[in-house]
Structure to design on (186 residues):
């Protein structure tokens, strides 16, 4: 669904499938954030050609456009603007770029494994080879924060990151990311 259509449906109080706002089938009383809710298989990519942070951000724009029908230029602009507030390279070769975008219904993500680490101006000054971008609705509150916390906590696990780095197939990476990784909160 395009962002324009989603925005129109939202302003009418409906989700894209015509349901009343607040009755989305993936939302429940006990909020349960899972990678499988954040990520589509087509939003996972192994990149062999990114040589800079700017190129990586462009890759996320392309992935978001292809996987979620989000305007890629808007993604690039929002992620670039977010980076001006401070780097999202969190250390140990991991970056968590994130931004809020008009017209989204849910928090969604994209994952990139870089075959050659790039300078990302990370907090530990180490190059980045694992990057998970999150895109949230402008009015997302707790859901956006829970998604960011889940991704950050998961990618802080050295064994998990080693497992990701050992695989070069997007389908395998998607499986690793989505199997049994969740954050339950009431």
């Amino acid at each position: 669904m395009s962002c324009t259509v989603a925005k129109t449906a939202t302003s009418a109080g409906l989700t894209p499938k015509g349901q009343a706002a607040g009755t989305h089938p993936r939302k429940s009383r006990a909020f349960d954030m899972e990678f499988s809710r954040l990520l589509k298989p087509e939003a996972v990519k192994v990149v062999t050609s990114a040589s800079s942070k700017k190129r990586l951000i462009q890759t996320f724009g392309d992935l978001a456009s292809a996987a979620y029908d989000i305007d890629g230029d808007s993604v690039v602009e929002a992620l670039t603007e977010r980076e001006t507030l401070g780097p999202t390279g969190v250390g140990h070769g991991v970056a968590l770029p994130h931004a809020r975008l008009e017209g989204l219904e849910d928090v969604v993500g994209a994952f990139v494994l870089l075959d050659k680490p790039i300078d990302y101006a990370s907090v530990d000054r180490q190059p980045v080879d694992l990057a998970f971008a999150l895109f949230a609705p402008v009015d997302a509150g707790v859901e956006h924060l829970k998604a960011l916390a889940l991704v950050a906590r998961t990618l802080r696990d050295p064994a998990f990151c080693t497992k990701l780095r050992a695989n070069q197939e997007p389908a395998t990476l998607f499986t690793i990311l989505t199997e049994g990784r969740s954050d339950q909160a009431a």
